[in-house]
Amino acid sequence: MASTLGQWRQRIREYKNDLVQTYFNYRIEAVNRPYTVAFRPQPYRFLLLLSHMRSGSSLLTHLLTTNPEVIGYGETHTNYADANDFKGLLKKVYWQAQDFRTLGDVRNLRMNHQYVMDKVLHNKKFLNHDFLESEQVYAIFLLREPQRSLASIADLKPHWNQQDTIEYYAERMAMLVTYAQLINDPARMLVVTYEQLLDQTPQVLTTLQQFLQTRTPFTEEYTVLKTTGMKGVGDSKGKIKAGKIVRSQRQLTQSFPPELVERAQQAHSDCQTALMDLCQSVA
Questions:
Q1: d(Cα 125, Cα 184) in Å, to the nearest integer?
Q2: Average of pLDDT values for 154-169?
Q3: What is the pLDDT of residue 235?
Q4: Total domain count for the chain?
Q5: pTM of whole model > 0.85?
Q6: The domain spanning residue 98 has which CATH number?
Q7: Each residue of 98-116: pLDDT tens digit?
Q8: Residue 186, Cβ neighbours under 10 Å: how many?
Q9: b/e per residue 69-105 (b: at least 16 CB within 10 A)
Q10: Can you list the alpha helix ranges (DSSP code H) found in the chain?
């Protein structure tokens, strides 16, 4: 009897999941324009969190997506060849970033967010850069000082040698500047550092609201999602499940020789200087 009941519950869950996904797919695919869905007059704004691995991007993602006007869950691993790939992002985000367990979750079908967010940490994810010029694309650049970034990347990627780590970091810094030059619109770009996020939190939160023009302010506390701490989506090593900013940092044992650190510091400095010229920044 219990086994039969369990099977029925599983079938009901599967049927419900199919209905929800069919509903989202219809609304997303019914309109050919890449930033628009059916039954919604205004187009979405697509918010790209552009950063590097171990930058604190999972924390910033959660602070952003707790705001009711922003939906996302982290790194979706979408490959962007043109603006039409945002349709695929919409499908992933509306399914993965929300729960559909109770009748009250029907409100999650509204698709009334102002921004749909993705986090991109690797150069290869943008197969073409033309879509960055769209007025519907907004970017937040997040940087973290190299010494701790390198140690944390090495901890995350034990199969990489130190040269691999430096190459990734330096090449990513250069590419972030390229993205900003292609967007070429300070009204759609903001640069933030992880150090500001921890040490100047009120100013960062205020700047986020001003930049995104949200009605709801941003706060230090955030919603823990079903994807929080999931490998491949975001931080699986830190204290991301705390639901608030945790300023203490875990001990890292990796170290890099001075000449490699110096190269990374130069790449970071060049990137930050360029982005400060091209983007809005924290007051």
A1: 20
A2: 94
A3: 63
A4: 1
A5: yes
A6: 3.40.50.300
A7: 877 777 788 889 999 999 9
A8: 13
A9: bbbbbbbbebebeebebbbebbbbbbebbbeeeeeee
A10: 2-29, 57-65, 85-96, 146-156, 162-183, 194-199, 201-212, 258-278
